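Sample intake sheet
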Amino acid sequence: MELVCPAGSMTALKAAVDNGADAVYMGFRDGTNARNFPGLNFDLNEARQGIAYARNRHARVFLAINTYPRPHQWGKWCVAVDQAASLGVDALILADPGLMDYCAQTHPDLRLHLSVQGSATNHEAIDFYVRHFGVQRVVLPRVLSLTQVQNVMKRVNAEVEVFGYGSLCVMVEGRCILSSYVTGDSPNSSGVCSPAKAVKWEESASGRRSRLNGVLIDVYAPEEPAGYPTLCKGRFEVGGKVYYAMEEPTSLNVLDILPDLFRAGVTAIKVEGRQRSPTYVAQVTRTLREAIDACAAGPEKFSPKGAWVEQLDKIAEGRCHTLGAYTRPWQ
């Protein structure tokens, strides 16, 4: 299985490549990618340098143009596709069918991957993209169980990439109605569930408060670790009790099911986190590289090392991990 790691900056790209990533994924420094953060991503010159660095160390580079352009933006998104083709990226990660059609017609030799933003969760949807646009790989959303992943893989004529570590999403990827309602911005086009301009921290004697566009998300006791405020991972009063009503802050970690994914024929394990620090990227890449190599050498004997779990939990949301939707005992 390939290890595909995030490159939100040149430093993060080098951290991923130097620690064993088979491929990295990046975006341009604009709204064409779904992680449009200030200070992140690449201009054309930086992208060219990053590609050269990765290629010289036998790693591939994928570029994400995975947002949905509005009608007045169409030309800019087509230019981004043209620029990616001119850079010679190893694959383009797309979500919008119109852009896929443009790419298939204009750059027929450019390899296409279906972004998780496309939310293709069944073989019929995946086959549509394969037949019409020549998509060669699909990134499955983080809402499928392991059984569902295995069943999809038996019926599709495309490579399958799944998320192996990082944040979870309780909504249709990138189109969260909750965060859109609170901030007025689409997570897909704004690049994040909680745009920095909408985040506010308040300090008081009783602790720290986090707000999102004025909405109280959480209250932290003194010395309690405070996570970045997202609506789905906030604590709310429901029925007289204050708790994580929608989702607890935790990170996806598939170490326990690596052999199952390997036997199912999964092509790549993807790490979430282009907005994360280079230190995060280096640690996750290094740990998963060891784990994937150990699994490939003997899936029947594979067992996650305690050191791997400990290293990944240190940088996980909430300092803990979950299999998320992958584990559903009733299936």
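Comment: Residues 295 and 302 are 5 Å apart (CA to CA). The chain has a mean pLDDT of 94.
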